[in-house]
Specification:
The protein is of the alpha+beta class and 237 residues long. The protein contains ten helices and four strands. The protein has two domains: 2-85 and 198-234, Glutaredoxin (3-Layer(aba) Sandwich), CATH 3.40.30; 91-195, Glutathione S-transferase Yfyf (Class Pi), Chain A, domain 2 (Up-down Bundle), CATH 1.20.1050.10. The protein has helices at 10-21, 41-46, 72-83, 91-121, 127-150, 161-176, 182-192, 195-200, 222-229, 231-234; strands spanning 2-6, 26-30, 54-57, 67-70. It binds glutathione.
């Protein structure tokens, strides 16, 4: 059994989708990041970086004690190696899959995150920061659209963990910008129909809050701001 510590956020969805795709048995341990669950001592013992997702695998590859792993990209890679699925076999193809997974982890994830922060969550609107990250989002979508003009999926002909990592971040953007990014639209629509994806995106749905972009964005309370972006986030522990 694998326990996923996470909630209804893009990074946890990547992992839920992967486990559904791979036919793994798993359960959710909800981490409600707007309530500050990520600072609970039990969670910090799993990930001192106070971020979800984290998995605990009771039957880890190679045996031994339950295995704890953080960072969604590392988790996807571990699960793909554990099951031998959604990872190309040849060395070059595998490296290309890794390349696109890193493109998500180092580009799309952080830049989309900062874009959401400065465009929506920040109380003080700062034009330069808004433009900087909006431009990065558009640039990254353009790169991905170009790649998907050449190949069916990000790593090549087959659906892999690189697609699972990226889809939860870009699906909504692509819906709103379909005319600009037709190749991305084709790819996103195809992935959206996969039964494992339909199940995976539901992870933690019951704790989805209207305060978040995902939930409709009604605005964060002062406590929630402190937890995510303020005193609580940056307190020395
Ligand atoms: N690089 C990490 C990022 C994880 C991350 O930012 N998680 C967010 C939710 S999507 C979180 O737990 N935030 C809580 C906090 O910042 O206190 C990964 O890919 O797993």
């Amino acid at each position: 059994m694998i326990t996923l510590y996470g909630g209804p956020t893009p990074n946890s969805r990547k992992v839920a989708i992967a486990m559904e795709e791979m036919g793994l048995t798993w359960r959710l341990h909800t981490i409600d990041i707007l309530a500050g669950d990520q600072f609970a001592p039990d969670f910090l013992a799993l990930n001192p970086n106070n971020k979800a997702p984290v998995i605990v695998d009771d039957e880890p590859t190679g045996g031994g004690e339950p295995f704890v792993l953080a960072e969604s990209g590392a988790i996807l890679w571990y699960l793909a190696e554990k099951t031998g699925r959604f990872l190309p076999v040849g060395a070059r193809e595998r490296a290309i899959c890794h390349q696109w997974l890193m493109f998500q982890m180092s580009g799309i994830g952080p830049m989309f995150g900062q874009n959401a922060h400065f465009s929506f969550y920040a109380k003080d609107k700062h034009d330069y920061s808004i433009a900087r990250y909006a431009n990065e989002v558009t640039r990254l979508l353009r790169v991905l659209d170009g790649r998907l003009a050449e190949t069916a999926f990000m790593a090549g002909a087959d659906y892999t963990i690189a697609d699972m990592a990226t889809w939860p971040y870009v699906a909504r953007q692509v819906d709103m910008r379909a005319a600009e990014f037709p190749n991305l639209k084709r790819w996103a629509d195809l992935i959206a129909t996969r039964p494992a994806v339909v199940r995976g995106v539901e992870v933690g749905r019951e704790t989805l809050r209207k305060e978040t972009i995902e939930g409709g964005l009604s605005g964060l309370s002062d406590d929630q701001r402190s937890i995510l972006f303020g005193d609580r986030q940056y307190a020395t522990r």
